[in-house]
Design brief:
This protein is 72% helix and 0% strand. It has 11 helices and no strands. The longest helix is centred in the middle third of the chain and has 34 residues. It is globular and about 60 Å long. The relative contact order is 0.15.
Length: 283
């Protein structure tokens, strides 16, 4: 029975990927619907907050997903165990510098308001452990199984687009779990756009792990900046800096807001250039 089921699933990569996504979706939704705070009624739940108590759950999620991929025999197809193309790893450097810059801006801004910012090493270690598990699960699911499922049928471009849309839509489980709907929508859009970068990086490096590392660092940076912002006193309206009418400032703000999809397009172009160059040298 198990062997025939595995054969049936392996012959249908896209169907299998959708079944796995749906299974995890149900595992999130069913418990959430039983809570009185579901459907946006949890005022304490926010997109930039991370609950360290969720670490055991994320360990289960990442572990079960890897077990499913191993059982299917798709460790290479999903780029789980393939060796990264070293020539593509340098694409990780600009996002890491960008994230470090955003975190530094948050720290400097807090210091300018005489707000002391410090995070215990134990907290940072726990945060990185949690966000790495989150990155492993989400990259393994969406840039592993889902990307492979769509790629096997329609090629890499549609695979990146479809996996990104599904990745963004999956974040609506946060609304079902209690997060505000409009905040969740913004989070879903941002996550979907970020999928362009993670998908392109998986194609260019041939591995999900560079994306999992960036995903981990991004979530950690957003969480730390969120905690820093919560410590800072609110800025009065008359003291706020307006960007209206300043094209340079507006351009910088646009790049900062959409860095992940913009840079993802660069990585995607680099992937096609690399493939073309490799094919030309091989021929």
């Amino acid at each position: 029975m198990g062997k025939s089921l595995r054969s049936w699933l392996c012959a249908r990569p896209l169907t299998t990927a959708m079944l796995v996504v749906f299974g995890y979706f149900l595992s999130f939704v069913v418990p959430a619907l039983l809570s009185e705070a579901s459907l946006g009624h949890d005022a304490d739940r926010h997109a930039n907050s991370v609950d360290l108590s969720q670490t055991p759950l994320e360990l289960v999620l990442a572990g079960t997903l890897i077990a499913i991929i191993v059982w299917l025999g798709w460790t290479k197809q999903t780029r789980l165990t393939t060796r990264p193309a070293w020539s593509g790893l340098w694409y990780m450097i600009p996002p890491i510098v960008f994230m470090g810059g955003l975190l530094l801006i948050g720290i400097v801004g807090a210091d300018a308001q005489s707000v002391s910012v410090s995070f215990p090493a134990s907290y940072l270690a726990a945060l990185l452990a949690l966000t790495f598990l989150v990155g492993t699960f989400e990259e393994g699911l969406f840039r592993g199984l889902v990307l492979y499922g769509f790629e096997a049928r329609w090629g890499p471009l549609i695979a990146i687009a479809a996996s990104s849309v599904l990745f963004g839509a999956m974040h609506y489980v946060n609304w079902i779990g209690g997060q505000d709907f409009s905040e969740t929508t913004n989070q879903a859009i941002a996550a979907g756009l970020s999928g362009i970068l993670y998908g392109a990086l998986a194609l260019r490096t041939g591995s999900i792990w560079p994306g999992a590392i960036l995903h981990c660092l991004w979530d950690a940076m957003v969480t730390l900046n969120g905690r820093i912002s919560a410590l800072r006193p609110p800025v009065a309206v008359d003291e706020a800096v307006s960007l209206d009418g300043d094209p340079v400032a507006e351009g910088i703000a646009f790049v900062v807001q959409y860095f992940e999809p913009l840079y993802g397009l660069i990585v995607l172009l680099g992937y096609y250039w690399w493939k073309r160059s490799t094919a030309r040298h091989a021929g």
